[in-house]
Write a structure and sequence with these properties.
Rossmann fold; single chain; 42% helix; 11% strand; 2 domains; 6 strands; DNA polymerase, domain 1
Length: 222
């Protein structure tokens, strides 16, 4: 039976609350290169962006694609070392994914993160089997806040944007979902409810979601 709608997940801050570990990784990485970075700047400067964009923001210079890939992977290796021991899914995620699978709801991950982190997190959380499609930053020309990554996910799932619900935590990702003309549910793992108030629904964790709530979202402003 063809799924009637789709749920598309961001990864960092949605599948796992990884951003505190990313923040520490960026601080360690920048210290090595004597680049000043204030922890308070990180959410606005880095979270939700591709490494290519984040490196330019932090270092205040452009890098070649090769340099960007090398430096980005160096930073991500620090992150994976920091987070590998105590990684847990966001509260309620596994039950929510099981509910979607049992009810034939299409699912995908669409992340600005490199594929090395995507594979790492899905393996550590044992969640790969719940997702029909995986979309990473290499599969689109522009990362979030450009909507391409969410539109690519919808295309892969054979689903119209109007029938897609995005799960996001960053303001950059929220913008991408809204620009893709999808319903956006925001988790408060990274930003305050007030900063996410322009989305369709704000939640603290996945225990707050039901099939009825998802269906009601899709019916809004049809």
């Amino acid at each position: 039976m063809q799924p009637t709608f789709a749920v598309i997940f961001d990864m960092d801050g949605v599948i796992v609350d990884s951003n505190p570990y990313h923040a520490q990784a960026w601080i360690q990485f920048c210290k090595k290169y004597n680049v000043p970075l204030n922890e308070d700047e990180i959410p606005e400067l880095i979270f939700g962006k591709t490494n290519k964009v984040a490196l330019k923001e932090v270092f205040k210079k452009d890098f070649s694609p090769e340099e960007s890939d090398r430096l980005g992977e160096e930073k991500e290796a620090i992150y994976r070392e920091l987070h590998q021991k105590d990684m847990v899914p966001v509260k309620g995620l596994i039950s929510f994914l099981q509910m979607l699978k049992e009810n034939n709801i299409a699912t995908a991950v669409a992340t600005n993160a490199p594929v090395s982190n995507l594979n790492f997190i899905l393996a550590r959380t044992d969640t790969r089997q719940y997702f029909d499609e995986l979309i990473d930053a290499t599969m689109v020309k522009e990362g979030k806040p450009d909507p391409d990554i969410y539109l690519k996910a919808a295309e892969k799932l054979n689903m119209s944007p109007a029938k897609c619900i995005v799960m996001e935590d960053s303001t950059t990702g929220v913008e991408a979902g809204l620009r893709a003309n999808m319903k956006v549910v925001a988790l408060t793992t990274t930003h305050s409810p007030e900063e996410l108030a322009h989305t369709h629904l704000v939640i603290d964790n996945f225990e707050e979601l039901t099939l009825d709530k998802l269906s009601a979202l899709l019916e809004e402003n049809k």
